[in-house]
Amino acid sequence: DVARKARYGSAMGKIQADRERQRIREQSANDQSKPYLESHRISVAGEIAKQRAKELNVTEDKYFDESGLLAARNGGSNANKSKKYSVGEYEVSQYNVEEYSCTEYQTTEYKSVYEK
Fold first, then answer.
1. Residues 3, 9: contact at Cβ < 8 Å?
2. Mean per-residue pLDDT, 22-48
3. Could you give the dihedral angle defined by the CA atoms of residues 29, 34, 39 and 40, in that order, rounded to the nearest 10 degrees?
4. For every residue of the chain, which 3-state class applies, written as one string?
5. Is the sign of the CA dihedral 39, 41, 44, 46 positive or negative?
6. What pTM value is reported for the model?
7. Were 84 and a residue from 4, 13, 93, 94 both cysteine, which residue would form a disulfide, CB within 3.0 to 4.6 Å?
8. How crowded is the C-beta side of 56, counted as CA atoms within 13 Å?
9. In whole angstroms, how far apart are CA 79 and each of 63, 87, 107?
């Protein structure tokens, strides 16, 4: 009776090990295909975007303001600070709105509450 149970346990162990190896192989194949498919999707999306841009004759992006990018590259510019944006009666220029500059950022030394 003990020998029969041992043979049964050994056979079940082999079956489970084979199933696990098969799952590992399937998952490995699946994981290897994802980066290829993703890069292929990105390249196809780029081609579609170029085709749409040609069809629509897009000359400028109305949602992206290059002046902010140029000001950041030049280390900040005062030209954009005087610019006024208005929506109805609300003007943004009435508030202090400007680019954040890291050169003006001041820090103090951290002091732990546990130090004496």
1. no
2. 87
3. 80
4. CHHHHHHHHHHHHHHHHHHHHHHHHHHHHHHHHHHHHHHHHHHHHHHHHHHHHHHHCCCCCCCCCHHHHHHHHCCCCCCCCCCCCEECCEEHHHCCCCCCCHHHCCCCCCCCCCCC
5. negative
6. 0.32
7. 93
8. 10
9. 20, 21, 28
31: its two tokens: 């994981």
Cβ neighbour number for residue 71 with a 10 Å cutoff = 17
Whole-number Å distance between alpha carbons of 82 and 100: 16
Q: Is the dihedral of CA 34, 35, 40, 45 positive or negative?
A: positive
Q: What separation in angstroms does the CA of 3 have from each of 10, 15, 78? A: 10, 18, 89
Q: Report the C-alpha gap between 8 and 94 in whole angstroms.
A: 83
pLDDT, mean of residues 69-76: 68
**How far is Cα 98 from Cα 11, in angstroms, rounded to an integer?**
73
